[in-house]
Design brief:
By secondary structure, the protein is mostly helical. It contains 5 helices and no strands. It has one domain.
């Protein structure tokens, strides 16, 4: 039986791998609003490209925390 992406994301969260969890969850479409998807995407992008987001005035720590908060709410 195939493992669901939601289960994979839950396992990643349990192991504290928020980067990988956000990478998967940011593309979820079912039971996720556009705003939630955008928040998770911004959080992931701030992990991957922090210098860029800081250069355009984004509070990267807050964006990452917001992304993780949405992630933990939806799974």
């Amino acid at each position: 039986m195939a493992v669901k992406k939601t289960d994979q994301v839950k396992r990643l969260i349990e192991h504290g791998d928020y980067k990988a969890a956000l990478r998967m969850a940011k593309d979820f479409r079912i039971n996720v609003t556009k705003a939630q998807r955008d928040t998770m995407t911004r959080g992931y992008e701030c992990i991957v490209n922090p210098r860029f987001y800081k250069s355009i005035g984004t509070d990267t720590e807050k964006a990452i925390a917001d992304g993780i908060a949405v992630l933990t709410q939806i799974v």
